[in-house]
Amino acid sequence: MIGLDISSSGVKLVELSDTGKELRLECFASEPLPRGAVVDGNIENIEQVTDAVSRVWKKSGTKAKLVAMGMPPASVITKKIILPADLSEEGLELQVETEASQYIPFALDEVRLDFDVIGPVENSEDDVEVMLAATRKEKVEDRVAVAEAAGLTPTVMDIESYAARAAVERLAAQLPKGGQGQILGLFQIGMQVMHMSVLVDGQLVYEREQPFGGHQLTQEIVRTYGLSYEEAEARKKIGDLPDGYQTEILEPFLDSAAAEIARAMQFFFTSTPYTRIDQLFLAGGCAIIPGLVERVADNTKVSASVISPFKGMQLGPNVREKQLRNEAPAYLVACGLAMRRFDR
């Protein structure tokens, strides 16, 4: 099974295998999307997205047809609920539907609903904690339609932020003492949105999404140099811009990005009992912008690093290492989705 991440900027694909000792990256690939094809996580042009999925599948060289896909966090309602531990599976389903109707502002026949039993409730042996997740049916069906039109079989529909956390938990396990006791801040900086997650011992304690991303930098390049959006985006990626770009455009953008991250951290401190973050992980397409990680570390006074979700993996024979080093942070969600292949 492959992981397929559809965002506003493009489509990313990852295939992993398990060697028995560690995971192996078999292939990865990406294809850009035209502006407006995906807006705020919603697929607005199914044909354009389908074409991009078909191209990325062929480019990757994979033979896998089963796909795990993700929904944007803003499109999904999640809620932890407490239910009696002695319910049968059927009774559990009925009870979840009853509880869900209290939290979901839509008729149940308009949503896709799922749940997972997390485990016993602390200090209450008779109860279990259950996570339920629900999203509008048409949002799932749009992604399913894209995959099927591209000749693929959608098998798992995850939540993008959950997939990203699965990939990060694997990296956290590689930290000293497995990251135990560390408060980790993950910032995924995409084209339109910056998503913050805070993890303590593998548990999510906070998340927040705010509108900020590489789109602002591209727009400034368009405005300053009179380029088309597509040309500005392409030249931004390869660094083919006039001499004044660094001081006039890039430096102010880096300051803004570092300020947005510092502001998000302050929201975390003021709305939770926590007063520190020990390590910042930067991911997403914007994470690799030269100078960003240094600016963030300097501004926040917290150790920061750009992460590769493939760290510690073997690399298959078809993987180009140089390309991987340059692009890996953008594949966090796709990698987490691909890891669903190994669910037991």
TrEMBL record:
InterPro entries: ATPase_NBD (IPR043129), FtsA/MreB (IPR050696), PilM (IPR005883), SHS2_FtsA (IPR003494). Residues 1-168 form the SHS2 domain. One of its GO terms (biological process) is cell division. It comes from the Bacteria. Pfam families: PilM_2. This is Fimbrial assembly protein. It comes from Oxalicibacterium solurbis. The gene is pilM.
